[in-house]
Structure formats: structure tokens, C-alpha cells
Amino acid sequence: MSAYALTDSWTMTRRELAHWARQPVQVVVGLVFPVMLLLMFGYLIGGGRGVEGAYVNYLVPGMLALTMAFGLESTMLAVTQDLNKGVIDRFRSMPMADSAVLVGRSTADMLQSALSLLVMVGVGYAIGWRWHGSFVAFLGALGLLLLLRFAMLWIGIHLAMVAGKPEMVQAVQILVWPVGFLSNAFAAPESMPGWLGAAVQWNPMSATATAVRDLSGIPVDGGWAAEHAQLLAVLWPVLLVGVFFPLAVGRFRRLSH
């Protein structure tokens, strides 16, 4: 990306960050929702089928991965609202890189995702989760989680432009929930029927959750996918970004001409 495009992207990022000050409730809800899920599954539903040892040590890495998949509706709504309010038309008339609007939106989202991760880690420690790996491993785990978020983000941006209208975002967002819960965030795949457990093990979110557990010092077993979770936690997001980033930018360019 050229320096010109980077400058445009940073300008659009500042635009998105300015919305935080005007819409603080939306930011707070985005931070609180995954915390509510963590507390609900940790205290109200807890147990974890097929999980050995302290359930909280299994649950928190799973919830961190799940948090990176959820919350895309705010990004999708922002994209569709810009499309329908004529904001994009104004940007089209400016000497601006085609990708700057989308890159700026994604950068702001990644900043909020990093903040959400820090909040979740703090809450996890408050309810008894402990990190037994090294500090370098901890940074590596955060990197894998944010990489997953980056991939999910570009899926969300592409789907938002496909949906086109804010009222269609909810219908599209519903598709994310089955994929999120069809993972090993809450229960071990070994406790599930064979065909379902196999599908869960190969879920990109399961790969990231398992990789984070592995890096935190929790023993990992359950077949090839679990044993190579760190590799898959890199390959899956890179593959998804490789597919959906050009699709999103290409669709935006078609809208711009």
C-alpha cells in the first residue's frame, strides 16, 4: 500500500474513532456483551462436557476466541449506513484511495477488539483464570486472537456490502452465531458425536481457542487438528483474509464506479 493510501486510511480511521466519543454506549455495549457471556457460561451454565481440570482455564481461551468472532454487527451497520446515507458518494468525489474507507473502518475495529481483549483477560483473571505460559507465549496468543478478528472483520465487511441495507444486517449476523457456537469454546469435541466433533475441531475458532490453551500451558489432545492448532490458527485467518479482503475491496470499487 502506498504512502498516499496509508494517509487516506489513517484519515478514515480517525473518522471512525471520532464516532466513539459521539456513541459511547455502543462502545460500552461491545465491551460488556462478551463479559456477560463469559460470566454466564462460567457461573450459570458452567461445567464443560469432556473438560478435565478447572473449567475456567478451558472456558476463558474459548471465550477470547469467540469474542473475536462476535460483535461484527457494529462494523456491518456502519458500512451499510455509510452506503445508504450518501457518505460514500462524498468520498467518491474526493482524491482518495479506493481501499481507504474500508481499511480505516477495519483499523478502528481492530483497536476496539484489542481493548475488548484486555477487558476479557482482566475479567478472566478476576474469576480465577491463570496464564501458565511465558510472556512471549501470551503475546503470541493475543496475536493469534487479533489475527482471527482481522479475518472475521473482512468477512463482515464483505457481507455488509452484499446485504446493502442496515435492516438486512441482523439477518446476516444470525449466520455468525451457529459458526461461533459450533466450536470448542465451551465443551471438548471428544464429548460430542463423532461427526459433530470432527466438524468442531476444524472450525477456525476452535483452532485459535486450542492454540491459546496450548500456549497457556493447558495440555492439548484430540487428533491432528488439535496437535497442530497453532499452525491452523495462522493458516485459517490468512486463507480467509486472502479470500474476503479482495472480494470486499473489489465490491467497493464496483460501487464506486
Describe this structure in words.
The chain is mostly helical and 257 residues long. Helix content is 77%, strand content 0%. It contains 13 helices and no strands. Helix 2 runs parallel beside helix 6 and helix 7 runs parallel beside helix 13. 36% of the residues are buried. The mean pLDDT is 80.
Largest sheet: none
Rounded to the nearest angstrom, the distance between the terminal CA atoms is 21 Å
Query: Could you say which overall geometry the principal axes of the C-alpha atoms support?
Result: globular
Tell me the helix content.
Answer: over 70%
Summing up helix and strand content along with how strands pair, one would put the structural category as mainly alpha
Show unreliable segments.
none
Radius of gyration: 19 Å
**Beta fraction:** under 5%
Q: Compute the average pLDDT.
A: 80
Q: What is the ordering of alpha helices and beta strands?
A: HHHHHHHHHHHHH
**If helices are DSSP runs of H or I spanning 4 or more residues, what is the number of helices?**
13
What's the β-strand tally?
A: 0
